[in-house]
User: What shape does this take?
Amino acid sequence: AFWWATVVGGVVSDRARRLPNVIVPLLCGGQIVFALRAGGDWMGGWRYLAAILPLLLTLTLVGLADLEEGVRRVSKGAGLAMGAVGAVLAVIGAACVLGHGDFARDREGGYRSWASKGFSRDQRFLMRGWLLDRAVVIGDWLNQNLPANAVVAYSEMGVTPYLSPRLRFLDVDGLTDRGVARLPGARHEQIGVRDDYVTLNGVVGPYLVQERKPDYILRGTSLPVGQSVPPVSILEGAYVFQTAFPMPASEPKKQGWMVVWRVADK
Assistant: This one.
């Protein structure tokens, strides 16, 4: 709240309303409207606002400068003015540090610095060693084993489509697919449409079989170490088991797998 107050202070400042400076709050406002209209982002990382974060921080500085000048005029001294700015920064800093303690200790979801990766420009290397390991494994397997332009139906795919640009992806959660998102009877939750897309018991499975007909369907699963994935068909035989390849472990004594089915008539 303190930080957003400084941003608003920067927006209403005379400095930000003068040309050409007004472009800064206009760009920020446009991106914020987009995020609100699109539904925001339920995950950590500020992905929707990352593009304008430097501009928002610029407005923060403008707001703090106006705060300092206002307090200085009222108090007729610099001490109280600097104290007010310091207090606001202390609250913001404390909130950031105390509110993100878990991230520093979390191997999978924690922050990573570019320096810790030797300032590499290899995106696959930058993702290694934490949660996005899985996306790299999936992307590499898809690139090696599926034909170009194949349509792959998958759910929480993360950065996998960026790693596999020759393929086409169908988001069964409906976050980037209008057809899935607007299915009659679809159950919408915080992270998109929630439905068992490998059976005909819901609404997404029949939609895949009857309307979209993707070439492949992917789904992750986790089994006790030593157990293998049963080679069963899905969607009443419309898709047959092709393979299951191992994923980086996410649970103790469990092995993650990515299961791949292909359309039966191929």
User: Anything to note?
Assistant: The CA atoms of residues 93 and 99 lie 10 Å apart.
